[in-house]
Amino acid sequence: MVVQAPAQDAHESPRGVTPAGFKCLVTEMVCWATGGPQEYTGRSMKDSHQHLMITAAEWEAFLDDLQQTLDKFAVPPAEQAEIKAIVASTRADIVV
Ligand code: HEM
């Protein structure tokens, strides 16, 4: 995801997930969450993000990036609403 939070700028994963592996896991998770047939094989959102101490402001910056991306690729309003609802459902496990 195109997040400018410090944790992702560095893109250092203390658990050994490379940038390519990270991208693969996020893709897999979003495909799984939007109906599959992919299965998500990564860690839970809480386990993956708790140690990053992501703030509400960083989350808002991420949502802004997400909106710009959806608009850039002209994703229709109904599908935008669907993906944003899925993303919103992960907030409680990601933001400190
Ligand atoms: C402000 C928002 C977010 C930031 C800054 C962020 C940052 C990160 C970082 C740095 C990692 C690697 C952690 C590690 O390996 O130690 C990670 C893992 C991951 N994130 Fe996020 N993330 C954000 C939101 C999201 C959202 C909204 C989703 C999905 C809807 C997501 C899905 C994932 C997945 C699937 C992984 C990999 C889990 C694994 O390694 O098994 N992230 N994130």
Describe the structure.
- Residues 3-11 have low confidence and may be disordered.
- The protein is mainly α and 96 residues long.
- Helix content is 60%, strand content 0%.
- The chain binds protoporphyrin IX containing FE (HEM).
- Residues 3, 5, 7-8, 13-15, 17, 22, 25-26, 29, 42-43, 48-49, 52, 54, 58-59, 62, 87, 90, 94 line the site of protoporphyrin IX containing FE.
Order of helices and strands: HHHHHH
Indicate the overall shape.
globular
**What is the end-to-end distance?**
19 Å
User: Residue-averaged pLDDT, rounded?
Assistant: 87
- What is the number of E strands? 0
Tell me the domain tally: 2
Ligand list = protoporphyrin IX containing FE
Based on secondary structure, the structural category is mainly alpha
Radius of gyration: 13 Å
Extract low-pLDDT stretches. 3-11
Strand content: under 5%
Percent of residues in helices: 55-70%
The major beta sheet can be summarized as: none
Number of helices: 6
Produce the secondary structure layout:
Elements: H1 6-10, H2 19-33, H3 45-49, H4 56-72, H5 77-88, H6 91-94
